[in-house]
Design goal:
With 458 residues, the protein is an alpha+beta fold. It is built from 19 helices and 14 strands.
Length: 458
């Protein structure tokens, strides 16, 4: 990946090039630290893998160990019966009736941040990823734990900034700590480095504050709780669920684990989607015009954007899907390890083999997408593509099957609302007109050099 980044400006070039040269290639084999590793590229194998993943595979602990230290028993890392319980309860919280209540909170967080940027004069050389991360992080915290929690300070930092910095420290543990590479992630629990000790200390500090918020909210619900129904957040829903279902509930620790999980998964991925969207909007200015014209023709009230209004914006939906297809921040699943020797299609997968799925395979597969190396949002509006992409394994950027991304609808609601508000509010251009977009793999698949924008309020 590092060589591809330097040579071609794209750390995912190798996978894309293999697909381009041989669309019928079924697997990519490699050696991962002395272990056999398979990347599935055939869509029929991918489909079968997803259908049996919970039976024959488990997440590989090499990459999940330090996630476990931060996320604990969040839904992302659980397996089997406990995962089913978490997924079922959280899925109820993510139903559209509940997401519709979150829309005013989302809009409020966006306007608060843009107003702050303007008041502080941060309008030139704007590191737009960092600004979007602040917005999406704030949205996750407000929709999960409420506005009061998002306003708290931990060691002088907002909770959003604190969690963001903690995530970066975890990234250092995973990809830049030679001890992890040579001895495995279990060595992290020894806290041998200053960064390891920091992650352990700050994770516990965060949990202490979160437990205080949960206890306070539970006390409020048990006394005179008069919160506006339209302003209720996920914590309200989960605590109310627990009070109604004493034998079928999440513990306080599990609620905190899921808050951290949703923050980690929801802040960076949505912010990166929006950041690369800025680049494509500038590279293809006709796309911005089409997005705004569609919004106006559908009667969108930019001061009161609703979920129902967003659902009518088919071109905006197609644009974001095309950005994801070209440069999704997540390129694959977390690797799975085969629990037993078994058959996958006509392949025999030996116990211990690492198996994964490349999301690029579907996104650049000519079986599903004509001229896949062109940026063309309209492809998702054309009937022939719509028919092909109804196949659930043709668009894998939110994964697929029973364990698909639980927050995908919230992510798209956020992204669409932020993007529409941004386009209505600002004219923008690249601070460096000679900027070249190059992708590397850090924690995510992301621009090597930051995208800096100059903004002018309309």
């Amino acid at each position: 990946a590092g060589l591809d980044e330097k040579r071609y400006g794209d750390a995912a070039y190798f996978e894309k090039d293999i697909i381009r040269r041989n669309t019928k290639k079924r697997i990519i084999m490699s050696n991962a630290l002395g272990r056999a590793s398979l990347m599935l590229t055939d869509h029929s194998l991918i489909e079968e893998f997803y259908k049996m993943v919970h039976i024959n595979y488990e997440k590989d602990t090499f990459l999940t160990y330090n996630f476990k230290m931060m996320m604990g028993n969040g839904v992302f890392l659980l397996e089997n019966a406990r995962w089913k319980l978490h997924r079922r309860i959280l899925s109820e919280a993510f139903e559209f009736t509940n997401l519709r209540k979150m829309q005013p909170i989302i809009k409020e967080a966006i306007l608060d941040h843009f107003t702050e940027m303007e008041r502080e004069g941060r309008m030139s050389n704007v590191h737009i990823l960092q600004e979007f991360q602040k917005i999406t992080g704030d949205i996750v915290l407000k929709t999960f734990f409420g506005s009061d929690f998002s306003k708290r300070k931990i060691n002088g930092k907002t909770v959003t900034q604190y969690l963001s910095d903690l995530g970066e420290a975890m990234n250092l543990q995973l990809v830049r700590n030679p001890l992890t590479f040579f001895f495995g992630p279990q060595i992290l629990k020894l806290n041998l480095t200053q960064n390891d000790r920091r992650v352990s200390r700050e994770t516990e500090e965060l949990r202490v504050i979160a437990r205080e918020v949960i206890n306070q909210r539970r006390h409020e619900q048990q006394t005179a709780y008069t919160k506006d129904e339209a302003r209720k957040d996920f914590l309200d829903f989960l605590l109310e669920h627990n009070s109604r279902n004493p034998e079928d509930q999440l513990s306080d620790a599990e609620i905190i684990d899921n808050m951290i999980t949703l923050f980690t998964g929801g802040m960076d991925t949505t912010a990166h989607l929006l950041t690369t969207s800025m680049y494509y909007l500038l590279k293809y200015p006709e796309t911005a015009a089409k997005i705004m014209n569609e919004a106006k023709s559908n009667g969108i009230n930019f001061d009161h954007i609703t979920i129902d209004g967003l659902a009518s914006l088919k071109y905006l939906d197609a644009f974001l899907k095309e950005v994801l297809r070209n440069s999704a921040p997540i390129l694959s699943l977390l690797p799975r390890r085969a629990k037993t020797t078994h058959k996958l299609g006509d392949l025999t997968i030996l116990k211990g083999t690492i198996v994964n799925v490349s999301f690029n395979v579907a996104g650049f597969n000519e079986t599903f997408y004509d001229q896949p190396y062109e940026f063309r949002p309209e492809r998702f509006l054309e009937e022939n593509v719509q028919r092909k992409t109804r196949y659930p394994y043709s668009f894998l950027y939110f994964s697929a099957g029973a364990r698909n991304c639980i927050g995908k609808y919230l992510a798209f609601i956020e992204a669409k609302t932020i993007l529409l508000t941004f386009l209505k509010r600002y004219l923008f251009k690249l601070s460096n007109p000679d900027y070249k977009l190059k992708f590397g793999i850090r924690f995510l698949y992301e621009p090597v050099d930051p995208i800096l924008l100059d903004l002018v309020k309309q």
